[in-house]
Amino acid sequence: MIKWGVIGAGGIAYRRTIPEGLLNARNAKLIAIQDLNVEIADKIGSEFGVNVYKTEREIMEDKNIDVVYIATPVYLHHNQCINAARHKKNIFCEKILCLSEKEGIEIIDECLKNNVKLGVGYMMRFNSLHLAIKEALRDNKIGKPIMARAQLSCWYPKIEGSWRQARKTGGGGSLTDMGSHCIDIIEFIFESKVKEVSCITANMVHDYEVEDTAIVTCRLDNGAFAIIDNCFNIPDNSSQNFLEIYGSKGSILCKKTIGQDSGGIAEFYIDQEQKEYNAGQKRIEDKSFGITDEKKENIYKAEVEYFSNCVENNVQPQISGELGLHQVRIIKACYESAKTKKIIEIN
After folding, report:
1. How confident is the model at residue 284 (pLDDT cuts 50, 70, 90)?
2. Which residues are bridge partners to 3 per DSSP?
3. Is position 133 within any domain?
């Protein structure tokens, strides 16, 4: 049983990762939490029956803890990951890994130096529908991959002191917070890396420092294109969060597989028969078939079990620090594109 401690126990940790993941995982046990807000920490500790530490140092020095889960604002990740590695703790860090490429390299180097595992929280990879779609593309079900679109939006009004709404603390706005997930899931499904990006950003509704709207177009190294759109200014009930995959023999259209919830619906449209041009674009029959996620394995439980298994069996996680650094590079390239109005290549 791999024992976990949490730094930054409010926010996503309290809403999702602790109750859905850590408390239900077969091979993990939550034993301690820490948060700068003492009242929140005491409330969470009492609710879940775990130790509450007042400082990060206390949780780092607890020899019973195998994994430190870092769910704090992005600007704190670098120092916290470095300190955890130096205390020989395996680290599972929420995305985005850090604010800069330099910070990411330093985190990875420190983890290698201290022989600890480093994972990043891209939980949408564990949605069973996304795994099924990945297999469908491997089996050439929709032919040559042509393009994809991933949408993740929400309503996020101006909130005084919100770290996500300041560049120094969050790194960016809707693109950093949500776009990183969208880019990652497209790379995961296509098994192909983004090689160049073009991006536009704006503040269309809210007047905070970071963008509330971002549109990214990407070219992947398999030749396919991708469109990513993320907004902080669309009401939640209007944000259906679609994932669309198109190929030369069909398409896969998903609803609500992108986001914090597990499950969703995927519709496959497969047509290997069309040979000739049809000027009327008439659809002779509906060739779709739907897949619903009956199993609905929780994506937070799955990511906790996966990383715990990597630690227990000394296996390098695929959701690695290198993956986190790659996403940092892509997001930085997107902002450079938005500033320069140029296509930016990813090194």
Report:
1. very low
2. 29
3. yes
